[in-house]
């Protein structure tokens, strides 16, 4: 049964070249009162054309599609949104694939995705992923985040200055916010960060929100990438 979506429902776009797959996803998503499918696209090129100006919150993006693959479409969309929208209003993208490979996850993060999900994941996992990225978190286990980011670190440019504090993005953070960002980069969850710093998880969430705002980051994965780019965190530290 399809429920009438709430006025503030999360707006979802489906990008997949298989119509039956989109129909299945739409049926599951539209069954939730807090979610609604507002747009569909059959390939990456169409997705870019339609989504640059279309109001949407979360995009489910297939990897393998004709015309333009999902990773390339993700990169083009995130670049366009970055130029037009503040970080907290930029849509989040969850990349969908049938292959559980690190290379896809890393490429998805590089392209600007906030999540990575296997297409055969249970429906409840997909629904949770949409809600999670909409909150600003990433759909990648914290332990995997560190492993993947460290793989990426070798491809990132060297920090412009030897002192991370010289970077205005890092300089804008308080000492506690820097501590939280370092622990995020080490793959610690909010609960674990709270235990490490002897503060409540709600306090950690507040710090994370402020870090994302100050760094202009879409989510915590992008914030962790910034910590490596600026030299605040180095591989193996």
Automatic annotation (TrEMBL):
<keyword id="KW-0238">DNA-binding</keyword>
<dbReference type="Pfam" id="PF00072">
    <property type="entry name" value="Response_reg"/>
</dbReference>
<keyword id="KW-0805">Transcription regulation</keyword>
<feature type="modified residue" description="4-aspartylphosphate">
    <location>
        <position position="62"/>
    </location>
</feature>
<protein>
    <submittedName>
        <fullName>Response regulator transcription factor</fullName>
    </submittedName>
</protein>
<dbReference type="InterPro" id="IPR016032">
    <property type="entry name" value="Sig_transdc_resp-reg_C-effctor"/>
</dbReference>
<keyword id="KW-0597">Phosphoprotein</keyword>
<dbReference type="InterPro" id="IPR001789">
    <property type="entry name" value="Sig_transdc_resp-reg_receiver"/>
</dbReference>
<dbReference type="InterPro" id="IPR039420">
    <property type="entry name" value="WalR-like"/>
</dbReference>
<dbReference type="Pfam" id="PF00196">
    <property type="entry name" value="GerE"/>
</dbReference>
<dbReference type="InterPro" id="IPR000792">
    <property type="entry name" value="Tscrpt_reg_LuxR_C"/>
</dbReference>
<feature type="domain" description="HTH luxR-type">
    <location>
        <begin position="166"/>
        <end position="231"/>
    </location>
</feature>
<keyword id="KW-0804">Transcription</keyword>
<dbReference type="InterPro" id="IPR011006">
    <property type="entry name" value="CheY-like_superfamily"/>
</dbReference>
<dbReference type="InterPro" id="IPR058245">
    <property type="entry name" value="NreC/VraR/RcsB-like_REC"/>
</dbReference>
<feature type="domain" description="Response regulatory">
    <location>
        <begin position="11"/>
        <end position="134"/>
    </location>
</feature>
């Amino acid at each position: 049964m399809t429920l009438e979506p709430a006025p503030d429902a999360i707006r979802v776009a489906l990008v997949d070249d298989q119509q039956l797959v989109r129909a299945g996803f739409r049926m599951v998503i539209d069954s939730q009162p807090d979610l609604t499918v507002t747009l569909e696209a059959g390939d990456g090129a169409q997705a870019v054309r339609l989504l640059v100006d279309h109001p949407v919150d979360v995009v489910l993006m297939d990897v393998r599609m004709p015309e333009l693959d999902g990773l390339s479409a993700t990169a083009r969309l995130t670049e366009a949104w970055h130029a037009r929208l503040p970080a907290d209003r930029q849509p989040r993208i969850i990349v969908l694939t049938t292959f559980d490979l690190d290379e896809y996850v890393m490429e998805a993060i590089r392209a600007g995705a906030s999540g990575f999900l296997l297409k055969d994941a249970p429906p409840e996992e997909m629904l949770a992923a949409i809600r999670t990225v909409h909150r600003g978190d990433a759909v990648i286990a914290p332990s995997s985040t560190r492993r993947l980011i460290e793989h990426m670190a070798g491809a990132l440019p060297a920090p412009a200055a030897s002192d991370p504090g010289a970077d205005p993005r890092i300089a804008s953070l308080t000492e506690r916010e820097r501590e939280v960002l370092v622990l995020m980069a080490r793959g610690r969850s909010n609960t674990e960060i709270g235990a490490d710093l002897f503060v409540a998880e709600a306090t950690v969430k507040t710090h994370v929100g402020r870090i994302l705002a100050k760094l202009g980051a879409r989510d915590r994965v992008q914030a962790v990438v910034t910590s490596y780019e600026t030299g605040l965190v180095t591989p193996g530290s």
